[in-house]
UniProtKB/TrEMBL annotation:
Cofactor(s) needed: [2Fe-2S] cluster; Mo-molybdopterin cytosine dinucleotide; FAD; Mo-molybdopterin
Limits of the Aldehyde oxidase/xanthine dehydrogenase a/b hammerhead domain: 11-118
InterPro entries: Ald_Oxase/Xan_DH_a/b (IPR000674), Ald_Oxase/Xan_DH_a/b_sf (IPR036856), Ald_Oxase/xanthine_DH-like (IPR016208), AldOxase/xan_DH_MoCoBD1 (IPR008274), AldOxase/xan_DH_MoCoBD2 (IPR046867), AldOxase/xan_DH_Mopterin-bd_sf (IPR037165)
Lineage start: Bacteria, Pseudomonadati, Bacteroidota, Flavobacteriia, Flavobacteriales
Organism whose genome encodes this protein: Flavobacterium silvisoli
Keywords recorded for this protein, A-Z: 2Fe-2S, Iron, Iron-sulfur, Metal-binding, Molybdenum, Oxidoreductase
Family designation: Belongs to the xanthine dehydrogenase family.
Name of the molecule in the record: Xanthine dehydrogenase
UniProt keyword DNA damage present: no
A molecular-function term among this protein's GO annotations: 2 iron, 2 sulfur cluster binding
Amino acid sequence: MINIDAHNHVKGKSIYLDDIQEIHGTLYALPFDATVAHAKIKSIDLESALKTKGIVTILKAKDIPGQNQIGGIFPDEPLLADGEVHFRGQVIAIIVGTTEHHCRVAAKRIKVVYDELPVITDPREAQKQNQLIMPPRQFRLGDTTSAWSQCDYIFEGRSDVNGQEHLYIETQGAYARPKEDGSIIVSSSTQGPTAVQRMVAQVLGIPMHKVEIDTVRLGGGFGGKEDQATPWAVMVALAAQHLHKPVKMSMHRMDDMRMTGKRHPYSADFKIGLTKDLKILAYEVTHYQNAGAAADLSPAVMERTLFHSTNAYYIPNVIAKAYSCKTNLPPNTAFRGFGGPQGKFAIEAAIVKAAESLGVSPAEIQKANLVKEGDELSYGQILTQVEAQNAWETCMKNYDYESQKQRVAEFNSKNTRFKKGLAIQPICFGISFTNTMMNHARALVHIYHDGSVVVSTGGVEMGQGLNTKMLQIVVETFGINASKVRIESTNTLRVANTSPTAASAGADLNGKALQMACNALLERLKAVAQKEFTDQIIELKDEMVFANEVKTELTWKDLVLRAFTQRVALTENAHYATPTIHYDKTKEKGHPFAYHVYGTAIHEVTVDCLKGTYDFDSVNIVHDFGKSMNPTIDNGQIEGGLVQGMGWMTLEEIIYNDQGRLVSNALSTYKVPDIYSVPKVINIQHLETEGHELAIKKSKAVGEPPLMYGIGAYFAIRNAIKAFNPNADLAVNAPYTPEKVLMDLYKKS
Ligand code: MTE
Ligand code: HPA
Ligand code: MOS
């Protein structure tokens, strides 16, 4: 089935937040933000701004009737700064006017006097000053202390990896309309309608039943709208409550880039120990996560870094520790992979360090340590249905890696200006929210008596194709045409208490609930047909009833009408909660993931050793989709995730100066992959596997895992540099921008 949004997207007919028809009298809201990263606010002068033409009001912290608090995990984040600011871009006031232009004029007239305080932007510095979001956490397996003495080789090092701007094409935005009795409806470009509902209620001081959140679709979220879509929705809701008028906000790109958090930069220290046959016996890693000025989702992101600290490798003795460090940057947040990529980057850096020191290929170490059936990871989960070796070997064989290696070696021996580099990137990614409590979902299905069907789930469509997969479930269960089914917006009145669409689990969780609802309705409809076709096996397909595999005269439409006239319920609401998962934080042990996703990618890059620029010749992937329910959509997720991961590793460089000002604050200074920088060839092969019972229709979650193939891009470039400048002592510090590549090409050893 092609993506059900494809036609409307191409024609520009799809409705995003800013396309919603505005009600007459709609006002505009503009957040007014801090221009210093850490300060006490001595005074705010709004007088001249309030007199500006078109300005209706300017709201400050004191205008909040409920709590001035939007922290999701910890209550440490005010909606509006009150007395002090902790990062540049923190919102101090909300300007409301008849047009956005008037608001921008007024913003220039607000005068804030600050008493500036010291600014910290570096996570290690924050840790030294004990500026932590929460106490550190540590995962432990085996006994590293005694393992070191059994190692033949031990290496230590450091790796650094920068953040990443989400760059969803649709910026943050929300539109609030007051309803009667103090209730309110807010359209929000959010991955988490319930999170928005909860915070609107909390800040406005009203119960959740007075708040309706509606989300049609997002022009991308990538984690950036899991928690950080909330403040803007709360702001327009607050203004609407004050003014009894509809209020809208749709952010400009530079405002969005400046005010919102990004992927977390991490710095890590590692120590890795191996035996003579290249088995990794021990690994210790300490991660310093740059959380920014408030917790946001950092504790959960840090947890996933620890879960993925050994990537796809079995290491019997592990200590993985992490600090969530509080700095004066916008709070960093969820981003595709959710801390997993940073955990994997550090272990890959450690393996490369060991390989280079020993004069072997990193691939030899990677291959010798891939996880197998029954292996225990540092958090106690025993792996089953493991496909790591299968994916690796299939990849090597199907793409003929041996010839590729020879071809590259030959190329490098014959060329001086251009050098090629290869890298192999295996992945192993856990599927489920790491917080067990969040792994549940609901679906609501109505069959109308004309035979048409409408579906609501807690899942949000953000371009990943969720709605198409939901539609497939309905169509396949009922045996009806897609034109009979409509997937409705995600709405908190129809489906309540939802988890955000995140953790790649959107299709699994909502799809399983939807399948349960559809199956319950199917049973009821079959019972109605059974009255006519007694003792026969009833099936529904091609919009017809089949009895004992023979097509009857009874159509889907007539069957539904018959059920209705017999007063059979044609509505079903189902609830699904992932079985088998559990986790004990006091022991840091458990079985947090329903299953893992595996795969292997081979990167080939050519570096221009005169310019420091590079081109990716190919990325060859073997990926474990289980039994993909929609190969076209899933291949799209692999391509998009891969390229997004490669961007993070190569071109995309977030720069804050030491005063916490975002220097890479627009698309002129922040470079993302474009059609010229994507690999010339991307091959994707589906690994033949059984799939997993806990995956929807055995079709494994696909949203985040492929991003981590991108890590190989960094190490492929490094290998090309090594071919040019073999003795250079290179740091590991992503992204590998052309500037950094050039410096490393000519770095003295
Ligand atoms: N694909 C598109 N086109 N747009 C997105 O915003 N988000 C990614 C991934 N793929 C995203 C995407 C992230 S971060 C997640 S967690 C998953 O989609 C969420 O959707 P799923 O759970 O349905 O896979
Ligand atoms: N992944 C993504 N988003 C999340 C998670 C997770 O594990 N936990 C809470 N939000
Ligand atoms: Mo994705 S980072 O879990 O929204």
